[in-house]
Design a protein that fits this description.
Layout (H helix, E strand, L loop, with lengths): L1 E6 L11 H4 L4 H14 L3 E6 L3 H11 L5 E5 L8 H10 L3 E5 L21 E4 L4 H14 L8
Helix pairs in contact: 3-4
């Protein structure tokens, strides 16, 4: 199984950018943690980050036929990235939206997501661990372990 781990605008600045909201881990450290856990689960991760919406759309389209699911932190595009939303929806793949900070404890405009309606779920406010929870969810959803499904 292969999953796309997609990160949007400004997430390349993690570790430097407002650690009170986003934590002290860099994006490279988070990707490494996800890749390590993925290997334990027998899963390959394709990780990518871009600051432009068009670049993210290109990455989704490039990898959609090679992956079975997508973990996405769309950053600020969460709130207005309709072309990213459409690209994710067009894949027909399961998508889990992840946010490091608790968007519901922040400005009102951050609480609206154009991605959430097409996602299987949204994880917010759990820091870097949210990525691992998204990975675990997708792996189990795509290949359920006996006893882990209702």
């Amino acid at each position: 199984m292969k999953l796309l781990l997609l990160n949007g605008p400004n997430l390349n600045r993690l570790g430097q950018r407002d650690p009170a909201q986003y934590g002290r881990q860099t994006l490279a450290e988070i990707v490494s943690l996800v890749e390590r856990r993925a290997r334990e689960l027998g899963v390959e991760i394709v990780a990518a980050q871009a600051n432009g919406e068009g670049q993210l759309v290109d990455l989704v389209q490039k990898h959609a036929s090679d992956v079975q699911g997508i973990i996405v932190n769309p950053g600020a595009l969460t709130h207005y990235g309709y072309s990213l939303r459409d690209a994710l929806a067009d894949t027909g793949l399961p998508v889990v939206e992840v946010h490091l900070s608790n968007v519901y404890a922040r400005e009102e405009w951050r609480q609206r997501s154009v991605i959430a309606p097409i996602a299987r779920g949204k994880i917010s406010g759990l820091g870097w661990r949210g990525y691992l929870f998204a990975l675990e969810y997708l792996v189990n959803d795509l290949h359920p372990v006996e006893g882990n499904r209702p």
